[in-house]
């Protein structure tokens, strides 16, 4: 068995905070330094609130820095339509969320530029479709987003040939405000910006206990504690051992990213402009892209828990072979993975854990859009925004049916089936 390589990042982290040592007090404690937690901490610090951010590992550990970095400003994971969102949340709140999701990619690219983060951002995500029937069906879905500000352009077969070196696809739709970033550089940049704005950041500070105080909460780690009036838990599908009910509000599905070494031609025969593309006709996941330094990235649902370079990328190799027959596939150099937090309706969640305690989860595979959006809403909650004004409701920590069993079925039965039939 070949052991998995590191995350495909090539630059060392720019920020390596020390572990918590001693006791601190703050208005808000954020637990988890992925996209959602960093977005929340940055918004709070820039608003002048005292905030402490604790991360169990290093900045971006888990699914955030290990992602493919795709920016998808739509309900990508469950392909939810704006009409379905409104039916779930009500007309007013649903419209608010639809507007925010449609603007999420543009907001992120603007924010990256304003903060001076070298995230190697590239605009434009193309959703590709294999047949005219699929294109026609998708047209209705994408048209629903336009009233909310989404910029979507039809890409016909001839134009698509200049973007994707494959005859498999009948055409696609370009999400102008979508695209790709280097996720490791983005989490580094967000952490640096949060610290610069005044947030106190500590990595290698796993929260082992969380208890209610007379006016707030106290979190303890091996090195000390933090007392805060409000606590935001942004640990994704991992949940928090000190709050076990949180993890059971989502289903965890393993998603992996396989990456080659930098290719001499930057995979120009596959993706002449580097992508990214997303094959939404696939029953699983097929989203190849090329990084700024020429690595081919392929996202896929990972079977079981065998995270090794010999076997795990099998689904990615099969999809590449079907989409680009005759192309001699180079070996994958790195394999990174994480667990995506899924919700039945495809919407992110703000979970109420008690007065002053909220969990952020349910990115549904769109952590750069839905996760960041949810983290920002948690920050607005901590700053006193009325619940009725938030774009996401505060939900009770109700365990999903089969919350303990379904992730096992996903890894060992449902994902392997989807990886086979979806090719």
TrEMBL record:
It holds the Pfam family DAO. Keywords: Oxidoreductase. It comes from the Bacteria. GO terms for molecular function: oxidoreductase activity. InterPro entries: FAD-dep_OxRdtase, FAD/NAD-bd_sf. One of its GO terms (cellular component) is cytoplasm. Residues 28-381 form the FAD dependent oxidoreductase domain. SUPFAM superfamilies: FAD/NAD(P)-binding domain (SSF51905). This is FAD dependent oxidoreductase. It comes from Rhizorhabdus wittichii (strain DSM 6014 / CCUG 31198 / JCM 15750 / NBRC 105917 / EY 4224 / RW1).
